[in-house]
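Subject: for your reference before the review

Hello V.,

The reviewers asked for a structural picture of the protein, and I figured it would be easier to keep everything in one thread rather than splitting it across files. Below is the amino acid sequence we used in the manuscript, unchanged from the supplementary table.
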Amino acid sequence: MAQDKFSDIQIPQVDDRPVWDVIFAIYGYPALLLAHRLKIFSALAQKSCTLLEICEALNLKPRPVEAILTTATSLGFLSLHEEHYSLTPVTEAYLLESSPNYFGFFWDMMMDNYQVSSIASLEQAIVTDKPQVYGGNNLFKTHEEQIVLLQRFTAGMHSISITSALVWPTIMDFSRHRIMLDIGGGSGAHSIGAAIKLPNLKLALTMDFPQVCEVAETYIAQYKMQDRVKTHAANIWQDHWPAADLHFFSNMYHDWMPDRCHFLTAKSFNSLEPGGRIVVHEMLYNDDKTGPFAMAGFSMVMMGWTEGKMYSGRELTRMLDEVGFEDIQIHKAFGYHSIVTGIKP
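And here is what came back from the structure prediction:
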């Protein structure tokens, strides 16, 4: 049989680029993280530079820097004109510390914990069905107990949240809501964004563990939003939720399996007054689970970091419907994010 296989060898009807792309991704995408860590983007913040000028500024050799610059250029993070490299709009918006939309703290967190994305670690996560971050300890319990880890984690979450926080409040009419409860709100980014974009909102409450609230208060002060954004220290699973007519969850559901998500959904329904609204802000799978690739990759991130997974719009709609929410809608938000929202009758 083996002899038949080799004697019948032919050129396949599809080429081998997809299998090469897996290898190139493993090596190529880390080049961007290294460009960030080595301050290549910062070196180009003021003016465009040649390869040799970048090498001289950063005391690096041309061969590795050229490989990194070519990767960054091919992926749209740099442009090249007459041998001079320049930042592109996406890099200026998200990878310069001077930008209010700075994403780099999340990249820092990924690099600090890069062992979680190793083949060995992900294999262990799959075989055991348990997250591997922080040596397999509970992510949220670890943050609650260790303030330095908590601060770095919160900075990372803030950097991926603050831009989308300015968008979701604008994609439908939230004008009748007066008090927002941001459940598991971390840095308060979404409370801050809502307060900025919704002038009728009297108060946004960021609810999280006491240690997280202490960190959130520093972010709230940075944006000078202390009058309209407050923190509320609580255990979201065990404690009573304060009164609000708008409940907001961002990137919360993907941390948990359906039973825990159902608990949060039901607690939201029971806590809201009639006419209150729930908003679930997530990256969504296609309903048939055929992708998109980014959400499939995010689910692998969850494999390493939490006990959760990504959900489709259909799955979240069903969760809201099962506990009694009505007028359930799905709207595209910013980038890969969408919102799933419903009203308590």
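For the response letter, the relevant points are probably these. Residues 43 and 54 are 7 Å apart (CA to CA). Strands lie at 78-81, 84-87, 179-183, 203-208, 229-233, 246-250, 277-285, 311-312, 326-332, 337-343.

Happy to draft the paragraph if you're swamped.

O.
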